[in-house]
Amino acid sequence: MDTDPGHRPHRVVVLALDGLLPFELGIPHRIFGRPRDAAGRPLYEVVTCSVRPPGPVRTDADFAVQVPHGPQALATADTVVVPASYGLGPVYEEGVLPAELAAALALVRPGTRLASICTGVYVLAAAGYLDGRPATTHWAEADRFQRLFPRVRVDADVLFIDDGDVLTSAGVAAGIDLCLHMLRRDHGTAVANDVARRTVVPPHRDGGQAQYIHRPVPDPQQSTTTAARAWALGRLHEPIQLRDMAAQESMSVRTFTRRFREEVGVSPGQWLTQQRVERARHLLESTGLSVDQVARDAGFGTAQSMRQHLQAALGVTPTAYRRTFRAGAGSEARPRHRGSRPEPV
Predict the structure, then answer these.
(1) 3-class secondary structure for 61-90?
(2) Nearest 5°: CA angle at 195, between 192 and 197?
(3) Alpha-carbon distance 135 to 132, whole Å?
(4) How far is CA 272 from the centre of its chain?
């Protein structure tokens, strides 16, 4: 327990609605409940509330959850997360907030960061938070959601969208990706990667990665692209040609590209760019190397090339990114990711 009266962790309030999915309710607690600062103090405080006084909330399973806080907790939040629910009623059917939910959301302070997992996006849209803004949800809900909320710019092909103070994600595991992304945005890659490692999930899946990839069960004798990816990760600082990656698997470029996209969800070029951006972020955070040296070690070649790729992926320059996370200050603009697909190298 943190006993430092001067330490105030970022408060994440998770809104538990009737019909909630227990798995998705637990995601924010698992991701934000782990990280600590250098002094061992929690970086976040995670609490759960409902729209009613403390008490049981129905789930879609054969049990209820006992929620310890009422809607007043929303007024104390720095971030509000709305997980998926199968009991949204008029929100799902008509796009209208019931009075109880509307009164609860009215307690949220202006400037509070808002995030949704899967169908939790219906709540944000019905409250008007997404008007004129990009958003995503589970691919199976996207068409219906767009018809119900025509003012929202729906992108059903991405895992999550970061629009600054409002973030939305696709279903289930994409909620983990979104929470890790927020953690990475707040405190950098080292903290996010440590939590991912402890949670035994991939540390980074880019927001622009496809939600739904048809993966037929592979023939046990069929080659994969795993060795090529491992080979590339060991030499990101070198020029890497598509034909060189294909050669690692003894495939033609055409077959390798098709197989790679089936397995990873993005093209080899997009994947290489993602990995190089992650390498650059790690070096900028954890070393004193010059920007030019970071660019070379990450495989961008020049500082100008790295600057363009980081601006496209994160919305900040390498210098601003380093200043933000090496100083640990909250005054710098945090990197943002809108879920757009990265360009191939």
Answers:
(1) CCCEEEECECHHHHHHCCEEEECCECCCCH
(2) 105
(3) 10
(4) 19
Residue whose pair of structure tokens reads 């760019």 in the numeric block: 273
Q: What is the pTM of this model?
A: 0.73
Beta partners for residue 154, in sequence order = 135
pLDDT at 341 over 70: no
Our CA angle for 175, 177, 178, nearest 5°, is 65
For the chain, where are the alpha helices, taking DSSP H only? 22-32, 90-94, 99-105, 121-126, 142-148, 173-187, 189-199, 226-233, 242-248, 253-264, 268-286, 291-298, 303-314, 318-327
CB 83 within 8 A of CB 25: yes
By the 8 A CB rule, do 174 and 117 touch? yes
Amino acid at 96: V
Query: How far is 273 from 195, CA to CA, in rounded Å?
Result: 23
Length of the chain equals 345
Give the active site residues.
118
Query: pLDDT per residue over 239-280, tens digit each?
Result: 999 999 999 999 999 999 999 988 887 899 999 998 999 899
Can you say how many angstroms the Cα of residue 205 is from the centroid of all Cα atoms in its chain? 8
